[in-house]
Specification:
The complex is a heterodimer of chains A (137) and B (310).
Chain A: H1 3-10, E1 13-18, H2 24-33, E2 45-46, E3 55-59, H3 66-76, E4 82-86, H4 87-91, H5 106-109, E5 114-116, H6 123-136
Parallel strand pairs in A: 1-2, 1-3, 3-4, 4-5
Chain B: H1 2-9, H2 14-35, H3 45-56, H4 67-92, H5 102-109, H6 112-123, H7 127-157, H8 164-173, H9 181-197, H10 209-212, H11 222-247, H12 257-277, H13 284-307
Classes of the chains: A alpha/beta (137), B mainly alpha (310).
Chain lengths: 137, 310
């Protein structure tokens, strides 16, 4: 592992994109930042601007209104950026998969690096998913 | 010539200030984490952040912005921080510059980073950055007068000396300025000025993350943002060092005094961090009123006390 990859993996800044979510995954993502789970010990912080982001967390089903916005957010992110689909809706569409306004799961719109299934996934599952993502490349 | 280059680039200028500042920024984040009952980031986290931004990330330029100014602004921010750092740290390390009146120059050099952030934000063409820049400008206008009054108080206390080296020597012969009534008042005012200069939480409205998404830095990514982080690290060291120089009789780097120097620096940074962790963000008009009314009043009381020798 080179110096660049090492620094990148040690300092992942998160940006949160919530689609048409039921808010449950949003709450579980925020739970990762709270004192009990504390992702800052791995160097991860939540940033306000997509220009600073290294990881794009996408949750919720993506409907027709969300699709162009998600694409634009992804194009505005400075590369390399990792995309993590969180929750059943983010990974497959979940119960919304056959809905009228559904515009495809996240991986049909932008390339996804990790899937964290669950409805909602527990904070432990989100942390385990991110650890696996770091081990992948 | 080589000596001056060494002063500017390595010790006590650019490299030294950046490394110490990075460690202090880790200290700030760690204390913040401990205050919130978290574990906090590892020791080298500021370096990982900096090298990731510098080497790994892509730099995106705004399509409708002034690209040259947008890229030049962070370089000038680092330049301003380095120059101010050299002028503050040389007298602090007991190396005389032979330049009488450097207090005034330091005052102007310390404004350069904030000004370049404003210029860079306005040249990016982002409306949220423009909001942040306007707030930063108002903040500069409100704290600069107060900071100038603090310096006036120091000048009066040191017997009309505007040479930082001499001010430190006067404190060494007598007692540190903080050991008097006017000194304590000046210290309080100076701490709040530092809080605003560093854009820490009660006065972080230029880069309010939850409100205007990092405000003035919203369009910065990759190498220019690494430069901005670098200038922030350096300011995090040189501003507390400046307080130590003007109020707490400087530092000595020999024997047991090294421990005192580190403790002084950490105490000032700890104070800043605790203020930042126990206060909410104020509105810009509240900040202006705070500085224009209360802090100026305190500083003027301190100056009057200093004239009477208290």
């Amino acid at each position: 592992m080179g110096f660049k990859t090492f620094c990148f993996k040690k300092s992942l800044w998160l940006f949160h994109f919530g689609g048409a979510s039921c808010n449950n995954c949003d709450i579980e993502i925020l739970a990762c930042l709270t004192p009990k789970y504390d992702v800052e010990r791995f160097g991860m912080v939540l940033v306000g601007s997509i220009r600073h982001a290294d990881v794009l967390l996408v949750n919720g089903s993506i409907n027709k209104k969300d699709k162009p916005r998600l694409l634009e957010i992804y194009e505005q992110a400075p590369k390399p950026v990792l995309v993590v689909a969180i929750g059943a809706c983010g990974c497959t569409g979940g119960i919304f998969a056959e809905g009228e306004t559904f515009a495809g799961p996240v991986d049909k719109i932008i390339p996804v690096d990790a899937y964290i299934p669950g409805c909602p996934p527990k904070p432990e599952a989100i942390l385990a998913g991110i650890v696996k993502l770091l081990g992948k490349n | 010539m080589e000596t001056y280059l060494f002063y500017f680039l390595i010790y006590p200028g650019f490299l030294f200030a950046a490394v110490i500042g990075a460690f202090l920024s880790w200290f700030d984040r760690k204390i913040t984490a401990r205050v919130q009952f978290r574990k906090g980031p590892p020791l080298l986290q500021p370096f990982y952040d900096f090298f990731k931004l510098l080497l790994v990330k892509e730099t995106i330029l705004p399509a409708r912005g002034a690209k040259g100014v947008f890229l030049a602004a962070p370089v000038f921010a680092v330049f301003g921080a380095t120059m101010a750092g050299v002028f503050i740290l040389l007298p602090l390390m007991n190396i005389t510059t032979g330049f009488h009146g450097d207090l005034i120059v330091i005052f102007y050099l310390l404004t350069i980073p904030s000004l370049t952030y404003v210029i860079g934000a306005l040249s990016s063409g982002n409306p949220l950055a423009a909001v942040g820049a306007s707030r930063e400008m108002k903040l500069i206008m409100s704290y600069e007068l107060t900071f100038l009054l603090v310096m006036a108080g120091i000048i009066i206390k040191s017997g009309q000396s505007i040479d930082l080296y001499q001010i430190i020597q006067i404190q060494r012969e007598g007692s540190p300025f903080i050991g008097s009534f006017s000194g304590v008042l000046l210290f309080i005012v100076a701490i709040f000025c530092l809080q605003a200069k560093l854009a820490l939480v009660p006065f972080d409205m230029p880069e309010a993350e939850t409100e205007i998404c990092d405000g003035i830095f919203i369009e910065y990514s990759g190498t220019p943002y690494a430069m901005i982080r670098l200038s922030k690290y350096m300011l995090f060291f040189i501003l507390p060092a400046f307080i130590i120089a003007i109020l707490m009789n400087g530092i000595k780097l020999e024997g047991i005094h090294i421990l005192w120097a580190i403790l002084k620096l950490l105490a000032v940074v700890l104070l800043l961090t605790l203020i930042r962790n126990t206060n909410p963000r104020v509105k810009i008009k509240q900040a202006i009123r705070f500085f224009f009314t209360w802090m100026n009043l305190l500083a003027i009381i301190a100056i009057v006390l200093a004239i009477f020798g208290l």
